[in-house]
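Expect chain and fold; thus:
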Amino acid sequence: MFEQMMLSAWSAGLRDKLSLPLRVELWDGRQLAFSSDPPRVTIRVPDRAALRYLRSPSLYSLGRAYVEGAIEVKGRAADIISVGNSLAANLGKGRSRLGDALRRAVPHTREKDAEAIRYHYDVSNAFYAAWLDPGMVYSCAYFENGDEDLATAQEKKIDHILRKIGLRPGQSLLDIGCGWGALVLRAAQQFGARCVGVTLSENQAALARERVERAGLGKQVEIRLQDYRDVDGQFDRITSVGMFEHVGVQHLTDYFYQVVKLLAPDGVVMNHGITTANVDNAATPYGGGEFIDQYVFPQGELAHLSTVVRAMQKGGLEVRDVENLRRHYAHTCAIWTDNFEANAEHIRTLTDEKHFRIWHLYLAGCAYAFAHDRISLYQIVCGKAGSEVSQLPWSRRYMYR
């Protein structure tokens, strides 16, 4: 009787605060509705112990409960994330500092970084191919008009980057964190560059090398399984797309210093990466950062744009151009989520149920976070600080040929 009274008070209090397209199904057959409209999300609580996830919810606790099978959740990922954010915002305890403490407690050594990369990227190439574009570009697309399909938008993104750095035939290009090789392939085929791509993922390196050979570009493109800290030489152009999130906030200056060492005197570098909207470089609110830290990106850290620019300058770079593509990444992640759900049956054959649930939440959660300015995406073009600039174009028109 006491438990029933507690549940009734809890559900009534929540309904007084907001209307949610949510239904909660209890282990004894009772159902709690939180809107007069049909529910778009259903949470099944299999036993009394699982009630704790709902009484004071966070994105971390709810996500963990779903991933570990303590509760069942049905609905489209976008609706699940929206309902989860409403529950955490209205019933939770606000921003958690646990994610920040956990990230900063683990050093960014070569071994730890390689382990984290393998965890995230070596699920399987087939897994990623099931929801990425055919070129397997795993970073923010560029929707020049807003109505492009994903494959077109990803190709436009790569061209946008290569035009921004002014890549010309015969120049050398280093791509730090080359993924499955889409950028270096495009740079060699369409821009005539000599390219080196480095990654810490064995799966990525193997497939990227296969793609290079199939394209007949073995003399133009080299794919290395190598840490960026171990790269030698100098390059006319350097790109880093979706990689510096793995570096660690405390190591950003050293990271950009290494980039400067590898950059030719009149070279150009482009850093394309995710940032946090929090000026203190804290994790995203309501436990979302904790969930990412534990289940998706071990040791991943997001810095605020101001921190990134400061680290670039301290590392020896001059910032020349900054572009915010937050809206583009929200749209990219929404398409990835739709692709994931459309191919759910096939994806379940490629991984276990736990990893399926992790990625189901993660992709939609990222779309929500980008759409609501919790995280962002900036492309930053730099040159060596103090270098001659007479060769630079007078305007940005050259980027949009």
User: Anything to note?
Assistant: The longest helix spans residues 353-371. The chain has a mean pLDDT of 90.
